[in-house]
């Protein structure tokens, strides 16, 4: 009888452990799906915001020290390279963040903070527009290709939570959160594009 009871207990423990493992795997897949949807939606937003623009509209500046839509688009494309290069060369070689952090809260902070344009920031020198892609069409082509690579990176890495480095938001961000950062960055600058287009002097055609 005692042996049978022990067997029942062991079966119950194994069942619970199995369910927990499955749930954890499902959660990771849910996180990937969430990030993929964010990457896809923010890519579409960039393409939609720049669709059908004339040369005058691409190059309009509301002031000499402001960026044009063409320059913002170039910055978005260049930043995707810059940020994902940092992820592969630095983040993925770093140790995990200290235990005890509220990971979901940090995820949510990234998604809320990075696209927020209530506080404007200067782009670092390597990411300032230089017409490096030759044309707005070149910038868009580079951006879409880079975003495809970002999505492929996300799909093929299950260890994104196991590496984290310091970030501009005051918290260590893990690899998954840096992917959210990349999507949020393009969302931020799509808002900037729409601000340029909303200027009363923006060309009608």
Structural overview:
The chain is mainly α. The protein has 6 helices and 2 strands, in the order H-H-H-H-H-E-E-H. Strands 1-2 form a two-stranded antiparallel sheet. Strand 1 and strand 2 (173-174) form a beta hairpin. Helix 1 runs antiparallel to helix 5 (136-156). The longest helix has 49 residues, at 2-50. The N and C termini lie far apart (86 Å).
> How much helicity do the residues have?
55-70%
Q: What structural category arises from helix and sheet content?
A: mainly alpha
The major pleated sheet works out as: 2 strands, antiparallel
Low-confidence stretches: 1-27
Secondary-structure map:
Blueprint (H helix, E strand, L loop, with lengths): L1 H49 L4 H5 L9 H21 L13 H11 L22 H21 L7 E2 L7 E2 H23 L8
Antiparallel strand pairs: 1-2
Helix pairs in contact: 1-5, 1-6, 3-5, 3-6, 4-6
Summarize the structure.
With 205 residues, the protein is mainly alpha-helical.
Structural features:
205 residues; mainly alpha; 6 helices; 2 strands; 2% strand; elongated
